[in-house]
Amino acid sequence: MTANDIAALLPAVLRATVVLSVAVIAVCVLRVPLRRCFGPGVAYAAWLAVPLCALSALMPAAPEGSVLALRAAPSAQSFTAAMRELAPVSSSMGVSGCIVLVWLVGALGAAALQIGRQRAYLRGLGKLTRRGDITYADSLPGGPALVGLWRPVVVVPADFDHRYTPEERELILAHERTHASHRDPWANAAGAALRCLNWFNPLVHIAERLMRADQELACDAGVIRRHPGARRSYAKAMLKTQLSAQEAPLTCQWQSTHPLKERIMSLTHTTPYALRMTGRFLVATALAAGSWAAWAAQEAPKGQLYDVAVRLSVDGATSAPHLHTRSGEAAGFRSGKGARQWQAQLTLTPADNGKMFISAVVKHAGKPVGKPGLLVALGEPATVKIDTDDKSHMEMELTVTQLPK
Question: What's the whole-model pTM score?
C-alpha cells in the first residue's frame, strides 16, 4: 500500500469510525425504551444499526448533483476536509503510515486476544462426549452453551442430568437451540470482529457487551413465548447454573454477563404480537434511514482524477513516486531527511486544448526555494530543476495522465 493509498483510505476509515460511534450511542440510548415498548427481540435487532451505518459510510459517495445526496450538510464536508489535513500525501510512510501501522498492530493484538480467550474456554470444557444431539463437557462450569459457527453444538456440564429437572433441561436446550436458529454465534463473531477493528474505541467494547446482554434477553423471551407456563422452572434453571469466569467471544453462553435479576424479572413480561411487529417495522425503517444518511452525507469526489508519475533526482539519489490527485487539490511528496530534505506540493488545473497547468511549491529544509508553474500536455513529461545555496540539487520530471473517475 502506497502513501497515496493510505492518504485516501484514512479519511474513509475515520469517517466510518465516527458514524459507528454515533450509531452505538443512539442504540445505547434507545435499547431500554425499545425493550419495554416492543420486547427484547426488537431491542436486540436495533444493534444491526452499528455495522450497517459503518459499512454505509465506507461505500462510494453518491454522484455529484444526485438527488440522493445530502450535500447541504456542511458538517460532512468540513469533516472530510479535516480528515484530509490529518492524512497528507507523502511518498514516505509519514504520519499517515504510522497511524495505519499502529491501528494494524492493535487490531492483530486484539484478534490474538479474542482467539486466545476462545481457545482457553474450549480447553476449560475438558473432554467432550456426544450423547444424541447433546455434548457433555468434563467440567461442571462447562455450559450450558452453544459452541461453534458453521456447525454449532449444545454443550452442557457433566452433571447436567442430575443438576436440572427434566423440565429445566428441556428449557435450557430450547434456549440454546433458539440461539442457533437466530444465528446468534455469527452475531457474536461480528461483534468480536468490530472490537478487533475498533480496539481503540471504548464505545465498541461497551456496545458488544450490551448487544450480548440483549441477545440473551431476546432468547429468553422467545423460549417463554413457546413455554408460557414454565416461567418458574426457567428461573430456577438460571439460579442453578454456575457462572463461568471465562469470556468466550464466539460462544452463546447460558451464563450471560447480564444481571441475573433483570433476566428473571423480564420473564414476567410478554410483549403482544402486534407490538412486536410494530417495533420490527420501526427498527427496519430506522436502519434503512440511518444507513442512507450515513452514505448520502458523504462529500462526493470533485474534479477529475489524475496520476502524476514523478522521476525524482536529489543529489544523485533517484526515486519514482506516484501521486493520485484530483484537479484543484494539492498533492505532495518529500525526499531525504533533516536539512537535506526536499518537499514538493503540486496542484493541477485543467487548461485549454487538453493541457494541464501544474502549480508547484518546492521547499528545501522546510524553507521555500521555488514556485514553478508548468503548462504541459497530458502524457508528456515536464522537468523542473532547482539548486540551493548549499549546493543541493533537485530535478523532477512530471508526467500527468488522466485516470477513470
Answer: 0.71
